[in-house]
């Protein structure tokens, strides 16, 4: 995305959009990072011919990383949905109990957490070969600037960071992970450096843009752009739905651990107390399964049919891990109901409606947990990201939470990324609240009443 930012201006243009399909080979599921990098840099180069580009910054999904030796990527990064993470959980469980780990890093128990994946790499001897680990946005920053560093918001999703923001060296030792693998930490707003001449030349980038560190965990950037008022909960809605509140400090009481809430670092030292809910993944994977059966259907058509589907549908637990990476999502949903003796919904319209009702139900339960655990009363929900375009889901969320829903902006991660860059470049100033005010002035959220 190309953004033009000023004190009263926040204009976003889509320079390119390209698929990000993980690839299954014999050793598992991997991301095509070189393709993503070249697609992005080609789009930036094209944009730099139209207008002078002064800054570049990358944000992405969390937890995944590349292993390097003497500056070269050793292997193609794995996708966090690869089944090796089950073994990773076992390896970490063998060393430390979940409550102890939670007290140290405050992260939800999920197979995808970086320490689980690194523990599998250690068991397979990959870490002996590596001298550096870089999260995916940091890998792109390294390829652009030659500098190796890890931005803090994404580092907080690894499980290797203490609640005080330092690497947990004792835990690394317990897990047999070399601390020297971890480059220095940097904060969002840091100038990473100029583009390497070779990169500029290879892609034909005009001008001399600086690379900035921003909230490199896309959810952290999305929350920057969420026009949160006091009493607001946020839902960062995309492949995943992240339901949470922004707090000054992590919440790691036993109740939070039992409810499997996570504490991930935000921009400006904030804390994101939140829960992962399966999100649009449920719908995109169902659509993929129907396409594979030769019954492809457009998303708009699915949502129209679901909106018109007024027969009662049951709801399933949209946080249940069986939905993490099933081969056939509609079958997994039917299986969830069958295992509980509940008649599953039949047909695409009913299943889609069931997915959206189940998501809204999970949001309402997460928000009730947040109120109980944090003591904060939630008076509104801000839904940002691609899922905020789903008006049926926004309506169901307002109905099930019982509070007004404010939907938008859609491109929240990109906007949060741009705002932090622009402030680091001195074009904007002020606090997160000031940045959010600009968002509210430019992007009027759509309101849905309970
Ligand atoms: C693993 C997920 O990607 C992560 O929990 C989520 O916050 C995210 O990054 C969504 O893009």
Structural account:
GO terms for molecular function: ATP binding; glycerol kinase activity; rhamnulokinase activity. Keywords: ATP-binding, Disulfide bond, Kinase, Nucleotide-binding, Rhamnose metabolism, Transferase. InterPro entries: ATPase_NBD, FGGY_C, FGGY_N, Rhamnulokinase. Residues 34-224 form the Carbohydrate kinase FGGY N-terminal domain. Strand 17 (380-384), helix 16 and strand 18 (405-407) form a beta-alpha-beta unit. This protein has helices at 33-50, 84-93, 98-105, 114-123, 126-129, 136-145, 152-155, 169-175, 197-203, 218-224, 254-258, 281-292, 299-308, 329-338, 348-374, 391-401, 412-424, 432-442; strands at 2-6, 9-13, 23-25, 28-30, 55-56, 65-69, 72-73, 132-135, 150-151, 185-186, 191-194, 210-212, 232-237, 241-247, 262-265, 271-277, 380-384, 405-407, 446-448. It is built from 18 helices and 19 strands. The mean pLDDT is 97. A seven-stranded mixed β-sheet has the order 15-16-14-13-17-18-19, with helices on both faces. Strands 5-12-11 form a three-stranded mixed β-sheet, sandwiched between helices. The chain has a three-stranded antiparallel β-sheet with strand order 7-6-8. The chain is of the alpha+beta class. It folds into two domains: 19-213, ATPase, nucleotide binding domain (Nucleotidyltransferase, domain 5); 218-450, ATPase, nucleotide binding domain (Nucleotidyltransferase, domain 5). It is globular and about 60 Å long. The ligand C[C@H](O)[C@H](O)[C@@H](O)C(=O)CO binds next to helix 10.
